[in-house]
Amino acid sequence: MASNQQGREIRAAHMRERRQLIKMLGATAFLTGVSGCGGSAPADGTAPPPSGTPGVGGGDAGRAIDFTLPEGWDYPAVIELLPFGHGVASGDPLADRVILWTRVTVPDADGWRAERPQGLEAVDVRWVIATDPGLTDIVGGGTVRTSRALDWTVKVDASGLSSATSYYYAFGALGRTSIVGRTRTAPAPGDAVDALRIAHAACTSYWSMDFHPYSRIAERDDLDLFCHAGDHVYEFVDTKGWYRARNDRFDLEDVDFRKWFDAEECGRRYALYYSDPDLLKAHQSLPFAIMPDQHDLDDETNPDTGVTFTEAEAAQVFWLWTPSRPPLPDGSGAFGPAPSPDSNIAAVPRAAATQLYRALPYGDLGEVLLIDIRRHRDPEAPTALEQLLGVAQTAWLKARLLDSAQRGVTHRVIVNQINLSQLRVFNVPVPGVFETLGLDPDGPELYTSGWGGLPEARDQLYGFLRDNGIVDNVVMSGDSHGWFASDLVETSGLPAYEPLTGGGTQGVVGVEIVPSAFGRPGGGEVVAGSLYEAANGRPVHEDYENYRRIYVPMGNATMRLVEPAAQLANPNLRYFNWRTYGYGLAHLTNSEVVCELWEVPAPVRSDAQTLIRQFRSAVGRPHLARDFAANPTSGLRTAAAPDAEPAPATDRLTG
Prior knowledge:
About 25% of the residues lie in helices and about 20% in strands. With about 650 residues, the chain is an alpha+beta fold. A hairpin with a 7-residue loop joins strand 5 and strand 6 (about 140-145). The longest helix is centred in the C-terminal third of the chain and has 26 residues, at about 545-570. The protein starts with a helix and ends with a helix. About 55% of the residues are buried.
């Protein structure tokens, strides 16, 4: 294992290699749009209005910008793509518009916290959207301005688009262009859409494994949407997740490794993740819909200063750095009208930053609802469901569910941070395993941080769904670092629930899939870490190879005892695997939903993936029935993959 000093030396060597590459590429460009606005953000986090005319360069126009990396520059970015070193992304599509995102990164000798990198106070960024990957059939575009107040991020709402259509987009600034992104609008009511295909992941930890699962998702050219159920970007690195640190950056005080303590450090963590080639490829390939969990937004107090970086401030960074559509600040979950194509979406005020729940209509086949069970709890609310979700969010959720049913929408896809279905306590022949896993063996349920801590809330939600005949629900959850596939029903035993068919006296109100994680340790690795530390008296990272070679198989063997015991005690738990990693996929049609669990080798990069389970659930009779034939589904609509090279430097992009 490298020491802290060795880690710094490795990073320095990497930076020298990157500088040499940039010199070979002749990385110099010219400024095409600079204005005199900028400065830091006001105290409430809102962005100041831009001065001057959008798209018109200021007094510094024409001055050379040098993209050669200065000595000591270590900001995480794909330097070959500068100034768009974090690629492009899209998200939260509606039938007629979609969010497009990028960031402008300019290296500066004063470092990554430079107030005015190379003298820039703001940059005008052009964007276009087209129906073809070559960007010849342009259907929209504009010029927006970014500055330090927005952490140099660019976020536009491309509107006036056709529904259920694939589009391609790119950005241009400082004489250069971004790579081309691919996105897709949602269907509108009445559109002849035979299927919706949605990929799903959670708990994606950069330091815990290579991000190759993102590439497996990006390679699918028939997806409509990617849903992330939380812990999209982590504020910390746990001791069992130091996989990448062995290879590159093992330094406990490194700003990219330790917890973040302010908005710039939080944004830098997004920069680290978004410069990963696999995540960059996924961002480039399809639209995202993200509901952050606790690690994305937790309060963090700087031990040296005592200053707390709050959840709301972290949420502001989330809105700047993700292609997510901010709802109105009134708690309604609704969206406002699209701004001008020459307007960057404004920074979200701190007071409204944690208003994260929202819905994306997907025509007659689906409604995607992103709910937040973390940040709106109200112990004084009149009902258990309102205590968990808050009064306003509960009212919004019920109204959206009823409205979708009344409009005849077939499926509701609910993105939910923590397992909705219960995991009741059960006996296993391994003393102390629940305590090792951080679970409560004395309660009726093992998970108490979410729905399991207030089971009456779950019962009330299920009762509402059943009473209103809203039973075709697909819940996409996260947080548990394992594969969970469940039928949603209050009572999991006979006569209320019959596991072979999903029948019984009570009635199933939907199905749930938890798609393991990208590297965050599941039960097998948690047990393995505890065994290693008990036997060796030192942390895992000091002997990572032996930990993985000897102790991880031991931990997984323990889980092979736990998993069947859990399913025996919870008959509605249709599949449970706390040993492997990957992502989920839902293929929704008018007659059924097919849920697929795709395992990906971890932690080392691999092109392999395996369909480990496939379930079918019929419309009107929800139940995860295993398909033993397990033939992977595919979409009828495909769109050409975007090119890995930057877009052509046309007048529409570079002036």
